Amino acid sequence: MNDPEPLSALIIANGRYPEHPLPLSLISKAAFVVCTDGAANDFIARGGLPDAIVGDCDSISPENRKRFAAIIHPNSDQETNDLTKSVHYCVARGREEIVIVGGTGKREDHTLGNISLLAEYRQIARVVMVTNWGLFTPIAENTTFHSFQGEQVSLFAIDRVALTTHGLKYPLQQRVLTNWWEGSLNESLGDRFTIETEGRIIVFQAFA
Fold first, then answer.
1. Which CATH homologous superfamily contains domain 140-206?
2. What CATH fold (topology level) applies to the domain 9-133?
3. 126-152, pLDDT tens digit by residue?
4. Which single residue of 130, 151, 153, 158 could bond 200 by disulfide (Cβ 3.0 to 4.6 Å)?
5. Using CB atoms within 10 A of its CB, is residue 54 exposed (0-12), middle (13-18) or buried (19+)?
6. pTM of the model
7. HSE on the CB side for 80, CA within 13 Å?
């Protein structure tokens, strides 16, 4: 698996803070860092300086609220979470190449919600989510992925449409996945694999 494509924004969500070298390197190299409301305190405590803080602003400390008042962008919309607000903030400013870190690793309902939202974000941006264990990429069309032999791959179907795979150990041929477990725990056979689909799929590639 290659590093994610060059990014125009990196969003730090309020999940488990990255520990793996890849997401940590993405944070250190990012030219524009957006923290969701709840993630800002931790990032700042680690010495980080966000370019923007976005959310309903119910979690940021009074000290940081005052210190970073100029870059706080409150959004009280209760129909979206802080991660979604941050993605829309980036897109509204022309930053459509987005990497999300810290999106998983704490409460399981938050984790599942954030992963599933990638399918929605794909409609407005090129977005991936990098965790301590691998990379989530949303697709909705035929896509070839760079890989390596033995890479662990899982497919999570949002839409119930047929999909076909090439280059995976357990091939799928015009298969409709009706539950998230059905496309999980597959394995790449070489330096690339292809998924043919017209529906929304979230692809997970585990780190070596």
1. Thiamin pyrophosphokinase, thiamin-binding domain (2.60.120.320)
2. Rossmann fold (3.40.50)
3. 999 999 999 999 999 999 999 999 999
4. 158
5. buried
6. 0.93
7. 19
